[in-house]
Amino acid sequence: MAEMTRRRGRVGYLLIIPAIAWLVVFFVVPFYSLLATSLYDPAGSDFRGYEMTYHLSNYWDAISEFKGPLGRSLLYGAIATLLCLVLGYVLAYAIAFKAGRWKNLMLVLVIAPFFTSFLLRTLSWKLILADDGPVVSVLQFVHLLGDDGRLLATPVAVVAGLTYNFLPFMVLPLFASLDKIDHRLVEASSDLYGNPVVSFFKVTWPLSLPGVVSGTLLTFIPAVGDYINQGLLGSPNQRMIGSVIQSQFVDANNYPSAAALSMILMVLIVVMVLVYVRRAGTEELL
Amino acid sequence: MRWIREHLVLLLGLLVLLYTFVPIFVVVLMSFNDPDSRNVYRFDGFTLDNWTNFCGAEGMCSSLVRSIEIGLLSTLVATILGTLMAFALVRHDFAGRSATNLLIFLPMAAPEIVLGSSLLALFVASGFAGQLGFWTILIAHIMFCLSFVVVTVRARLAGMNDTLEQAAMDLYATPAQTFWRVTFPLVFPGILGAALLSFSLSFDDFIVTNLNAGTTTTFPMYVWGANQRGVPMQVNAVGTLMFIVSVAIVVVGELNNRRRRAALT
Can you give the pLDDT at residue A3? Predict the structure, then answer.
């Protein structure tokens, strides 16, 4: 396809200015407000107003008070992402290589669960994992779970919910990567006496790495910030950082602390993403 | 046995797919549930009440209407602004292209809780803490839908070559005619897809909304609140209805595509 000629002149600017303005005012400026709020004097309140005192200790206070939820969120997010990678890889591989003429139908089915509400799907797991529900009964029958053992209100339920809800974010980028792989490379590997396992780890897996990296990021980032799964399936013992930020802002009206936590979460995620992407050697993705 | 070994990966894949559908079956099933008590979430008996007495759950229908209003309005604004921007990015040259790309990418990559809390920090700092509600939710939804619209429409535009438009110009069509008769119909499926995506993002959003809603209640917020008081089964009728409407839209779209392809060959 011929490279399209790009027109110069004022029209281009006129077309982007409204959207840019919206994003600057309601995305960039708020980020500055968040940073500023996180440095306010915590002694202020809604009525008296806040004073800017560059109170860096807000950050230490927030970390020491909420290191539990913070670490837990990163841990739950990481486990859920790993589980999604395993399940998602199987599904994406099946669609890309084995589905034949059903490929498009299966892709639609991957996103079909999105067609109903996130909260209602999560609520359904409350029924599936209930104390007298099917999963607990089976686990008790095979003695993986004691007679009074339960799944709801445990980390297992929260991680299961996170895994379920963010799986499509893993499958789609994985599929996009796998679908681009030239089948002749895999055939060449088996012609050269590579058994299927060797062929997979030496050919298919390395070629699918861009999909693995973007899939894990698309899963990990929302999973860490999520508190719906914890709220509906877990208990306060599994409290995640999103829930703390929400209640510090809205219920406790403790804006500086909530803003500091939000900044910490953002910085942690950015650092982890950068380190991860560098190690995976796929910088060109960013 | 051999058949199983040959199709093992496909079978496992189908199993994973089936797993993603289990909660959908539960939602449909529960829409016919006749619960013994509001506090236990399990299937107790069959009834059509949740469908015939759809708005019987107090406050549910008004939250649903509010979600639809916000969804439609934010979709309208985000689709218009995002489509204009996509055209500019693909068809026009301007300074600051990479900064613009970053500005589009970041809202999609940031966790929702960070997006929502920064907006709330802005509203509070500019003295709107008391006016949180419909309009602040709308502003937030337009913001996070915008990027998705730009990306979707841009993909459609970039995959299109301009030979048809050049042909139209060669045949003395004015620029306006070329745009409305040739360019726009070709891009339209992308715009429609972007609008549908926007609506579902807005309709389903909870985390950003919950921070910026004040006392206004959207449908997801209603479900969240109901979880603490006991969930009325009508919410599952809403979920089922959403699913049916979405499937219908996909099927109609696919049939349309096939018809168009058949007409071209």
Answer: 47
Please check whether residue A108 touches B, CB under 8 A. Answer: yes
Query: Two tokens at B82?
Result: 């995002």
Does A160 fall in a domain?
yes
Residue A95 lies in a domain: yes
Our count of domains for chain A comes to 1
Token couple for A251:
């219920």
* Architecture field, domain B61-232: Orthogonal Bundle (1.10)
Collapsing DSSP to helix, strand or coil, A223 comes out as: helix
Predicted confidence (pLDDT) at residue B119 exceeds the cutoff of 60: yes
Of A95, A122, A242, the CB nearest to B13: A95
**Is residue B38 predicted with pLDDT exceeding 80?**
no
CB-based burial label for B261 (10 Å; 0-12, 13-18, 19+): exposed
Mean pLDDT of B71-82: 97
Residue type, position A69, single letter: P
The whole-angstrom separation of Cα A101 and Cα A97 is 11
Does residue A51 register a pLDDT over 80? no
- Smallest CA-to-CA distance from A110 within A42, A171, A21, A198 is with A171
Distance of CA A78 to the CA centre of its chain: 9
For B56, the token pair is: 């019987």
Exposure string over A38-50, b if 16+ CB within 10 A, otherwise e: bbbebebeeeeeb
Chain B CB within 8 Å of residue A47 CB: no
Q: Which residues of B touch A121 (CB under 8 A)?
A: 23-24, 27, 239
- Nearest by Cα to A20 from B101, B119, B151, B208: B101
Put simply, whether A242 touches B (Cβ < 8 Å) is yes
The tens digit of pLDDT for each residue in A212-271 reads 999 999 999 999 999 999 999 999 999 999 999 999 988 888 889 999 999 999 999 988
Measured CA to CA, the distance from residue B181 to residue B28 in angstroms comes to 43
Residue A12 has what pLDDT?
83
The chain-wide mean pLDDT, for chain A, equals 88
Q: Where are the domains of chain B?
A: 61-232
Asked if residue B146 lies in contact with residue A22, where contact means CB atoms within 8 angstroms, the answer is yes
Of the candidate ranges A131-145, A248-262, B18-32, the one whose mean pLDDT is the lowest: A131-145
| Terminal-residue alpha carbon distance, chain A | 26
Q: What is the three-class DSSP state of A40?
A: strand
Judging contacts by C-beta atoms under 8 Å, the chain B residues touching residue A115 are 200, 242-243, 246-247
Q: Which residue is closest to A38 within chain B, CA to CA?
A: B121
Q: What is the pLDDT of residue B224?
A: 94
Residue A275's domain is classified under what CATH number? 1.10.3720.10
The whole domain housing A72 covers 67-285
Higher pLDDT, A53 or A79: A79
- Note whether ipTM > 0.85 here: yes
